[in-house]
Amino acid sequence: MAVIRPVPDRDSAAWWERVAGHEFAVQRCASCGLRRFPARAFCAACRGEAWRWEPVEPEGVVESWIVSHQAFLPGAGGPYVVVMVRLAAVPGALVHGNWLGEGEPRYGGRVRACFTDAGDDLTLVNWRPLDHAQEE
Ligand SMILES: [Zn+2]
User: Fold this and answer.
1) Going by C-beta distance under 8 Å and a sequence separation of 6 or more, which residues neighbour residue 13?
2) CATH 2.40.50 region(s) of the chain?
3) pLDDT computed for residue 4 by the predictor
4) Which residues surround ligand 1, an ion (CB under 5 A)?
């Protein structure tokens, strides 16, 4: 599996810290209560600047996916699948990650995040199919 090391910025650094603790959290505006992802300094709906982290179920549906044949790092062989997931907990929010399911993802298929400790203090959010697990 390819590992592309994310570069946390001012807004996302605290999110990555939570991911390292295997917690999937989004921001919730203290003024209007709107959840948002990715992390931003203020609310797009009410411009409020106060917010808190709120753990949510790391689930959603497959919005799209690609098969990458490009090795971004030496030794990281392809092809591998990257999925774009529409989060259930936050309308309009998309999260991408490596696909850990067998075979190819299914458009609209339900998925759940899993945390992959990639070493060197790096934890990644990857995705597995949810329907499959529930059927067994
Ligand atoms: Zn707000």
Assistant:
1) none
2) 57-136
3) 64
4) 29, 31-32, 34, 43, 45-46, 48
Express each pLDDT in 109-122 by its tens digit. Answer: 999 999 999 888 88
DSSP bridge pairs for 82: 66, 98
Ligand 1 center from residue 3 Cα (angstroms): 34
Q: In whole angstroms, give the CA distance from residue 9 to residue 117.
A: 20
Single pTM value for the model: 0.84
- In CATH, the number for domain 57-136 is 2.40.50
Expressed in angstroms and rounded, the spacing between residue 84 Cα and the centre of ligand 1 is: 25
CA dist., res. 16 & res. 23, Å (int): 9
